[in-house]
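For reproducibility, we list the full input for the tryptophan complex.
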Amino acid sequence: MQTRVLTGITTTGTPHLGNYVGAIRPAVAASRRADVDAFYFMADYHALIKSDDPARIERSRLEIAATWLAAGLDPQRVTFYRQSDIPEIPELTWFLTCVTAKGLLNRAHAYKAAVDRNAEAGEDADAGVTAGLYMYPVLMAADILAFNAHKVPVGRDQIQHIEMARDIAQRFNHTYGREFFVLPDVVIEEQVATLPGLDGRKMSKSYDNTIPLFAGGAKQLREAILRIVTDSRAPGEPKDPDGSALFTLYQAFAGADETAAFRQALLDGIGWGEAKQRLFERIEADVAPMRERYEALIARPADIEDILRAGAKKARATATPLLATLREAVGLRSMANLAAPARSTAPAASKDKPPRFASFRDEDGRFRFRLFAGDGEELLLSAPFADPKAAGVLQKRLRTLGGAAAELVPGERNASLRLDGEEVATTPDHADAATRDAALARLREALDRLAAQD
Ligand code: TRP
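The corresponding predicted structure, in tokenized form, follows.
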């Protein structure tokens, strides 16, 4: 069986060497494996969260598409598309939004960082925070779940987002009672090098220390490499390869033998100027043929458009049927198929169904369960337990308790169930005391029915 591997590329900015070595090159290599069914897409809806500059969005989408194709991505083999060409993604985003706890999103790192910055600046907590930033993890979950991806390779900063996608998928599965979604696994490529930038820190747009991949051609690549910070050792003095950004960059492109030779040259005291020239030549050997393809592609944007549209068609062949199933599942169904007299038979049928328990884990990983009446009405929600056995013991006791013995303590709009003086479960909130009391009567009935079964 093939593993479906999916990843998104946010289309802001211009690709640099760090993007190539850290993401593009390994993803293209993975896509060539026979056991991989790769879905790679441009996360251009996510880009709108980061940038409101239309020209930049347009340019970046084109450059990034051309970069991936130039780097060897085969669109026949890989499903390569734009997020914004898949209407099922925003549709699924809404379904997921409706089962996602707001509290989960409050804990997202990117959102929390924005709130912390505001606090430091003495601003309102949500100043400058759009709902788009807040919803970022849900959109990302939809990207993944719309295709039921098994594996999602991402950078470390994205791990939390994949965990949230799993959480949201689980919630949806639980709410609608079936395994609609595969729970995706995060993949962190440990062997992939993180490249140092011009100043030795991690190469990143936010540090303004990047070396462009194609932009500016060989000339700018060379100029950037000449600007890499080195120590002040003179030609002839031995250099420390392991403390040098030059060496790390060289190693990311060269094979083992070449790397060993470069290491020796540094130890033997090669001058930094000459070392930089060798580094430039090594990188240029890999980049030049790709740059040539890149220039050819970017000169024909209409061809790229065709490739991406074909990719979207392929992607939708998976997403469209899944969304049709989900629409059914949540109750957005055609009325044409509805048999008219459902009303007279349905309640009778559901009256015959026994009450049932449904166990789950809450956001904090604790064990809980609900008690539902035969017709699906929620009657009780248990307290959270750290130990699943404790939750099981409580369920057992409720099965044999019986309605008359249940100690139900009315609160303002709900009621709590006590055992040995301790609150162990609560009812949902009701509109007023009368509806609550009617619900309590149904709860006692359900407890009687459970006790009669056992
Ligand atoms: N948020 C990811 C990033 O910034 C990009 C992305 C969007 C993504 N949707 C995704 C990655 C789905 C993996 C799966 O890197």
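Residues 3-194+300-324 form a domain with the Rossmann fold fold (CATH 3.40.50.620). The pocket of tryptophan is lined by residues 6-8, 10, 43, 46, 140, 143-144, 152, 154, 158 (CB under 6 Å). Both points were considered when choosing residues for closer inspection.
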